Amino acid sequence: MTDSIIPVSDSLKEYARGITGGLLFSLPMLYTMELWWAGFISSPLRLLIYFFVGILLLLAYNHYVGIRSSHTLLEGIAETIEEMGMGLLLTAAVLWLSGRITTDMSFSEINGKIIVEAVTVAIGISVGKTQLGTSDDDDDQEVEKREPHIQRELGIALCGAILIASNVAPTEEIAVIALEIENYKLLLIAFVSIIIGGIILYYSNFKGSKQWVRKPNSQTDVLAGTVIMYAIALTSSAFMLWFFGRFNGLSLHGIIAESIVLGFPAALGASAGRLLIQS
To answer: What CA–CA distances, in Å, run from 167 to 27, 49, 88, 121?
Structure first.
């Protein structure tokens, strides 16, 4: 029985990778206007069927590919419920941050928007927990380290940021969110982007982090690396928005707001995407 007990620190890292996977695989959907409307106009029966299909998909994935090497049917069901619960909470948080759900909306509208998005988020969480961590072999033996090379690190981080954020950079949704969102939510988005990027690089044992991220000697190194990552995310966001003409006619506040909104997926790319590209 003791062999099946997972240390709390390992569970937290697993959840961190799950949240990263949920965001990586679903952010384009969370930033899609058609899906916001789908949640608003779908009938309760249609939403229930969609939610049930999502549960079945999670059960199948956890049974054949899940994070546990062996588990009973009840354990698989519990894991599925946990992942769907995380998907619902993460979806609600992102939709609230982006101003897509508000307190003056009806319960059915809020519920519909969350369910439509949460199924994909939950599947991304399950995949992230399973596929985005370091392997057992990496834990048992020393991983081949690469010599620090600042130009390479910056270049790959920039590639990762553009790769992930370019999925939504040309869309109207970025402007809609940026121009409608409250200022305190913009600060929250920036803060969450920085925190998630730092966790991916230095805490979650994300795939490739042991090989491609320089081991920090102090909290100052962690802070510096995280700030550089977010600076790359904002720079790439501003460049893409400028290229696609999204800054035309905007005030300075609008330019900053759009850059921060797009900086969320760009930060995922500059951290997680950078590691996945090299791995």
So the answer is: 9, 28, 23, 16
